[in-house]
Amino acid sequence: MKQLFKKLSLSVALLMSLSNVVIAQTEAQGYIANIGVKSNLEGLERVKQILVAPPFLPKHQQRYSGKSRIIEMEMIIEEKEIEVEPGVFVQAMTFAGTNPGPLMVVHEGDYVELTLKNPSTNLLVHNIDFHASTGALGGGALTKVAPGEEVVLRFKANKPGTYVYHCAPGGIMIPYHVVSGMYGAIMILPKEGLRDNKDNLVTYDRAYYVGEQGWYVPQDAQGNYKRYPNAVASMNDTFKSHERLGANAYYLQRQKRCTHR
Fold it and tell me: Does the pTM of the predicted model rise above 0.90?
């Protein structure tokens, strides 16, 4: 099994609630009346962020010390064939059609509100797990969407830094979706901007979002790379190729042992 690497150098600067099901948003009463969705979000400015394909970044400010805002975003999941080198094709699963997915940029204290759409043209269930968010599998437990559905996830971005997000539908489907391209990054800028180790303010004219994807493409008996009509058709051969790979091999074998007990 040959390993194909597709290295992406992407241009970056310095980045989540729930829907399609009716959610009860109960407000607290009495001494804790400031707790609840309405109380926390009422009156906050809403800002729409248009996500863009790497190597570019969405429009954003480097510093923002004002009141928390709700940053609205939308991503459409795409299951699509991509050509990783001349004549070699893979069935990719992507956020917004790119590999890696778009970089999101918000500020500490902002609320991220993502609408995640899974078109009816797709075949698989997907979700999104933000490592920048704590609880409910980083939103993954709240965002499973079947083809033809959409969901809205909202969370408060209170941990500055850069974090991965990825699809995590459960079990062996987690590594399958991730190695098939379903990941990206969210960058949460400190309210007062970036600073160096001497606490001096740091600004940037340009920034770069760098991602690397390794594609493990199954081959036939003659050594030719296989081509599949969709992500479901490629699944079995892809799992077989992953059984030979480090952490994925351990994970897949462990899943098999648990299944046969």
Answer: no
Three-class secondary structure of residue 133 per DSSP:
coil
Q: What are the pLDDT digits (tens) for 49-81?
A: 999 999 999 999 999 888 999 999 999 999 999
By C-alpha distance, which of 181, 175, 225 is closest to 91? Answer: 181
State how far the Cα of 218 lies from the Cα of 1, in Å rounded to an integer: 7
Q: How far is CA 140 from the centre of its chain?
A: 10
Backbone torsions φ then ψ of 76, nearest 5 degrees: -110, 125
Query: For residues 116 and 143, is the Cβ–Cβ distance under 8 A?
Result: yes
For the chain, domains (ranges, CATH) are 7-212 (2.60.40.420), 215-260 (no CATH)
171: tokens are 């079990």
| Residue (of 188, 185, 204, 186) closest to 196 by Cα position | 204
Does the pLDDT at position 166 exceed 60?
yes
